[in-house]
Every structure is written in structure tokens, then in C-alpha cells.
Amino acid sequence: MELGTFGAILSFALEFEGNITAFFSAAADAAGKGDAAELFADLAKAGDKRLKAIERTRRENVAEMILEPISGFRSEDYALDVELPAGAPATALVAQAAGIEKTAAAYYTTASEKVSVPEVARILKKMAQQHAAQLETLEELG
Amino acid sequence: MVKKTKNYIDGEWVASESKRIHEVTNPATREVIAEEVLSTPAEANEAVAAAQAAFWEWRETPAYTRARYMFRWKEALEERFEDISRMVTMENGKNIDEARGEVRRAIENVEVACGIPSLLMGYNLEDVATGIDEDCIRQPMGVFAGINPFNFPAMVPMWFIPYALACGNTYVCKPSRQTPLSMNIIAEVIDECDFPPGVFNLINGTHDVTDALLTNPDVQGVSFVGSTPAGLHVYKTATAHGKRAQCQGGANNYLLVMSDADIPGTVGALMTSCYGCAGQRCLAGSVILVVGDIYDKLKAALVEAASNIRVGYGLDEGVQMGPVISAKSKETILGFIERGIKDGAKMVLDGRGIQVPGHPHGHFIGPCIIENVTPDMEIVREEVFGPVMCMMQVDSFEDALEIIHDNRYGNAASIFTANGKWAREFKYRVRCGNVGINVGIAAPIASFPFAGMKDSFFGDLHGQGRDGINFFTDSKVVITRWF
């Protein structure tokens, strides 16, 4: 789907972040005990916070004057592998999570460049940075 | 079973006695989404009576307390933000981003009204003569009424209501017959905020309800947004009955593109201006006046951009333009285009036959671009209120101003240029109320008045901001001496 409007970008981000958060919640349960499980639980909490921030951003920053169309941004380019394989060991889940974080960082980086409202771009850039930092943490754990 | 609207009078939701029903339809699907019961003039007068009864106690409520109601109302509106936005799209047709933008602007007026303790302050001077002091205070007046348009069903009523209530007045709101449901949700929110009964009232109805409000002796003032003929009727009737009135009428807005304009930025702005809300806004750009040798380059860029606008059902994320409000509206717009072509205009981009997959019954018109027009043509002079852009080459800045000033409307105008001198000249001289410099929709934010001149506005004080405070209050001068 073309993400050609402010709303489309942020609505997709809500769905996107929702899927990521759901993955981390499920991964935390699947990983049982240990560092990976703890990290996944923390990442799920961080995802919840980001969901609230995205919803608030969409609600507070839609400036009617600036709804100019956006081009060259498609949701298909940011497909996530959030399906939890049954019985997967923690290391496999960490590797899968790293892939998700990489895609997420890329999405928010592009989104921040596409949106013309500076406050929104700032928030999206911050989310990109958060996902990049989470990727680093996962890679260190792996 | 489709829901029937009720009126909100004296803190209660009350079913109207009327048997007259207007079906509220989704312009994209033609589905009936509610039945609006068209109230009687007697019921309108009951709403006024409730507002009048509630006035004195509300007026005596401290400004800080009224401000706290505004804060509470703002938060409650944020909770229902998405609900209201979706309803705006379903009953009006605009895309969901436009609807959210509208609701954001509506809430901004409540945010400004939260500052009423400062906004309502008067001024004074000691010893105007020896031992004699003089104060000017602003006082609320009583019951105010609002008559609202279809195109911004959540936002436009909120240009008025927050200021009216925050100043200590009480209110009767009549939403548009075509799009009453968004304001009905806002009334639910007001109900949840526990405003004293009668402070805010909502009456669904049509012309006879409007006339009842205009002639009721307890109504102190009326706010109106709509067409110029209707605005003139409201203004004349209200003022003849001793009321103050602020009536925002129609528009036909010119966008002047100078030869040094930034083309990509200008094209983006013109897309929003001419096709945002399917052109159904009093700030929409209608006529592009091009000065200099950029006409062909600009035209090509506009055609490409307009051709790429995704037309569809506004609740689908990514749709950039929804339908027009009704079959009648579509017919009117198509009539303007046909007569324009007969007058000699040429279709450059023809959106008339657009088909939207999945929505065969919607009132869709795709973006249209027309050239070979002259200033005296109907399609250039009159308000089309649809997604139609006329392009005209003009010889000079002066010629462009003459064309703009020759039009009877004076709502908005914009210039696109990189030259400060042209921008300043335009700002200084153009006789329009809402002026854009490299901005296609010059929509004043809540703390500024929504201006308008000539046949686009009747009255002295506009909606929003300080104008709003002044409209909803009267000055009282008190001169004091103590023996």
C-alpha cells in the first residue's frame, strides 16, 4: 500500500508497532526464563509506550494546512516476520527479533524524512533511534 | 435499524415531536447512516428558553471555573478524537486525515478558550478626573445561536461555542441538516463534562428552526457560516431583530503564481488548496493566475500531480480525496463545468467520469483542470465548491490584483513567490481577509480571527480568537467616585 499521506504513515506505524509489541510479548512467554525473556518483556513495554506516542502524535500534529501528498513510500517494503515458530530456542527468537528491529529502524528513518511536520519527524526519528539501539542490544545478546 | 437524532435541551436528550425526517447519508456509499429529525420552531424556542434560564447562574460562575470546564472538555474531546473524525468522514466524505485535521482545529478553539481568565480581562485608568476612576469591563450578554455548514461539521461550530461559553453566555447550536452527526457526538461529550443544564443546547433542524432562532427575542447574537445568499438572509434578519451577527459567506479564491515561484512546493500547495476536502471549503483555491513564462511548466506539473491524486472512500487510509457531499452538489459542479466549456473554456484534466472501485454509488468527481478561461466567465467568477481548478495566464502582478478585486468575494487569496517585494505588495494591497504567502490554504489558527471581506462576510467581528471574545461580550464602562 502506498503510504501517501500523513495519516497513512502514522496509521501504518500503529499497526506496525502493534505487531512488533505483540511479537515481543509472545516471545517473552516463549523464551521462558533468562536474559532473552527479560529483554523481550522490556521491548514489549517500550513498544506499548511507542504505540501511545504514535497515537498522540497522529491526534495532536495533524495540521490541516499541511496535508500535502507524499510519494515513494510503500508499506510492502517494510514487511515484518512476526510469526513465532513453535518451540524455537531463545537464540532463534533473538535473531528473529534483530531482523524485526532492523526493519523497524529503517521504516521510522524513512518516515521521518517523508513527513513535513518537524515535530512529527522528530518523534519518528527518535523511534528509529530507539529501534536501532534495541537492535544493538539484541546483537550483543546474540 | 438506523438511529434517529435527538435534541440536547436543558441537559437532556429529547426526542423531537416532529415527523419530518431527513436521511443523513454517507456520500461515498449512499448508505443511510442516521435519520435526522427536523425539529419544529417551537422546539427551537424551547432550547432558547432553556439557555435563557441557565444564563444568569452560568454568567455568575467565576471565569477560572468556566476555564476548568474548558480544560475538562478539551480532554474529553481528545478521548473521542478518532470517533468524531470517523463520523466527519462518514457524513461529509472528506478523507480521514482531513477529518482529523478538522477535529484538531476544533479542539484548538477549546484550548484558546481555556485562557479565558486572561482573555476576558478589561482595563482601567485612575484619576480620569481628580478622584474619579474609570474601568472598562467585558460582560457576557445571554443566549447566542450558531447556524452551521455541512463542510466542516465539527470545526465550524467550535469557532464559536467555546468562546461563547467561556465568556459566560449560553448557547443553542443548529448543526447542518446534511451533516449533523459530528456535532451530535460533540454534544454527547459536553453532556459527559457536566456543564450545568441549559448552558449548551443542540437543536437539529432546517430553515424554520434557523428563522425561529433569528427572531427569538432572547437570542442576543447569531453566528453563521454558509453561502452568501443564506448569509445575507441571516445577517439582515438577525440585525433587524436587534441581534449582533457574524456571517461568513461564500468565496471564490485566487492563487497568484509569480514567475519566481518554487514550482514543486507550489504544486503541492495547490493540490491541497484546490482539491483538499474535494474543493468544498471557503478557503479552497479556485483560479490560478500565472504571471510570467512558467505557465506551461506549471500546467504540466499540476496535471501530473492532480492525475495522481487517489480518489476514494475517506475511511480508507491513503485516499487523498473523497466524494462531494451529494448528488445535487455533483450536478451543480458538473453544470458549472459544462457551461464553462460552452463559454470557451478547455478541459485539461477531466475528472468528471471517474469510477471508484468498490464505491459505484458515491458522489465522486475526480480532480479537474480547466484553462482558456477569462475573468468574466461564470466558472471563474462564481463559487463552484468542487474539485475544479481554473488556470489563467495574466500579464502582470497589477493585472492579477485587478482580477482578484473585480470579484465580489473577498475570502482568501494567496501568492506564490520567492520575492519579498511582491509578497509584501500582495499582503498590503489585496482585499481579501485570509491571505497566504506560499500557503495554499490560509486557514487562521484558533487564536486568530477567521477573516473575510466583501460578499464573503457580513458583520464586524469574526469567529475565533480575540474577535470571538469581543463578539460574545459587551463593553461596560464604569466611572467611579467616592465621597
Kindly describe this structure.
The complex is a heterodimer of chains A (142) and B (483). Chain A has four helices and no strands. The relative contact order of chain A is 0.18. Chain A starts with 5 loop residues before the first helix and ends with a helix. By secondary structure, chain A is an all-alpha fold. Chain A has a single domain (6-141), classed as Ferritin, core subunit, four-helix bundle (Ferritin, Up-down Bundle), CATH 1.20.1260.10. Chain B has two domains: 7-249, Aldehyde Dehydrogenase, Chain A, domain 1 (3-Layer(aba) Sandwich), CATH 3.40.605.10; 253-437, Aldehyde Dehydrogenase, Chain A, domain 2 (3-Layer(aba) Sandwich). In chain B, the strands form six sheets. Chain B has a seven-stranded mixed beta sheet, with helices on both faces. In chain B, strands 9-8-7-10-11-21 form a six-stranded mixed beta sheet, with helices on both faces. In chain B, helix 1 crosses helix 8. The longest helix of chain B is centred in the first third of the chain and has 20 residues, at 41-60. Chains A and B meet through helix 1 and helix 2 of A and helix 4 and helix 10 of B.
User: How helix-rich are the residues of chain B, as a percent range?
Assistant: 25-40%
Mean pLDDT of chain A: 91
Largest sheet of chain B, in brief, is: 7 strands, mixed
Order of helices and strands of chain A: HHHH
Short description:
The complex is a heterodimer of chains A (142) and B (483). Chain A is an all-alpha fold and 142 residues long.
List keywords for this structure.
heterodimer; A: 142 residues; mainly alpha; Ferritin; 0% strand; B: 483 residues; alpha/beta; Aldehyde Dehydrogenase, Chain A, domain 1; Aldehyde Dehydrogenase, Chain A, domain 2; 2 domains; 7-stranded mixed β-sheet; 6-stranded mixed β-sheet; 16 helices; 22 strands; 38% helix; globular
